[in-house]
Fold:
Amino acid sequence: MFDFSITSRCQETRARTGVIDTAHGTVRTPVFMPVGTLGTVKALSPEELVQCGAQIILGNTYHLYLRPGCEVIEHFSGLHRFMNWDGPILTDSGGFQVFSLAQLSKVSEEGAAFQSHIDGSSHLLSPEKTVAIQVCLDADIIMCLDQCIAYPAERETAREALELTARWAGRCKKEWQSRTDGHQALFGIVQGGMFRELRARSAELTAEIGFDGYAVGGLSVGEPKSQMLEIADQTLPLLPVSQPKYVMGVGTPEDLVELVALGTDMFDCVLPTRNARNGQMFTAGGTLNITNARYRTDTEPPDPSCTCYTCRHYSRAYLRHLYMSRELLAYRLNTIHNIHYFVRLAEDMRGAIAEQRFTDFRKAFYRRRTSRK
RNA sequence: GUGGGUGUAGCUCAGGUGGUAGAGCCCCAGGUUGUGGCCCUGGUUGUCGUGGGUUCAAGUCCCAUCACUCACC
Structure:
């Protein structure tokens, strides 16, 4: 089962709230989805994820296919039981790895030929295969295989990539229809680089095929922020209004607020988890680098206005000490805070939209960030 | 006591034939957008063990001395 219903709309922006029902539970949107590439949101247990308020997490087809492999996860009837997470899971198709591991891959009509970054073995990730793997993982939301291109890119390169992505999308849907019993959703992905007419063409082709939800890919690949928002602003309204919209791989807290205003329902990003492991913490007042010497004796929590486990129990000085000592607990406590912050930001936006005060929320969001520090 | 070796940044060490000092790590500050904890970009730090001598010029050559260290008595 998969269902999406819009529950409220902002009168001044395109922001909206909604509810996604999946076989593994309900997701309220806008939602931030923590990234759990290898079947774990790095440093956190599923219990801690729940405490952070996470509703749905990501897994990665490419990584899980290479290790441990479907034959292992099959023994658990999917990723949920394997990793002890019984909430919804969305799996990335591996399309982004075609892009990010480009030196190890070759794209053709058939699919993306890879050399494993682990042992160098050769693999072909076709649209059919990525769907088959995601069915095996029992993902609640399956993503189509797409071709993400680098920035900057020639118009012709972007055009070829979006057309290939559209052909792959058709094959993904066909494969999905032949395998699904209806409880797994399939999302299409819009590409087109930074070219407005190509984005429009991609949106049109993708919507024609018809999906349970639509993603905007190929953003935050090095382009200026203004351009990223411009493309999202232009692309999002071209997609069916009644389906969830997902901007992939984005972004900073500011990005989330702006993209919600443009009508985005779903986000994922490695920023909160990766940066937690690099000592950067997100707070209402802006980012804070816990390694800074100024926090050496600071008895305050990272974010005094935060209600997460870390902020309720630990000081900046202690977290700095843990991080400087490379203690494992540092990664866990920092990640708990950052995930909580992103999840909570989405939650606050949901409340603001539902109560018709999103514009005020947005203003206050920026005021808080400039008032501190 | 005799003979050898080593003393250069907080640490580990580079610095042919003399031209007033560098690297890695650490530390400090940035970056990080469909993830390997990595990585990238900047930055601070020196009475070159000490005292003499030779020289226009000494981390570098000479003498003395101190510390550490190894071997032998």
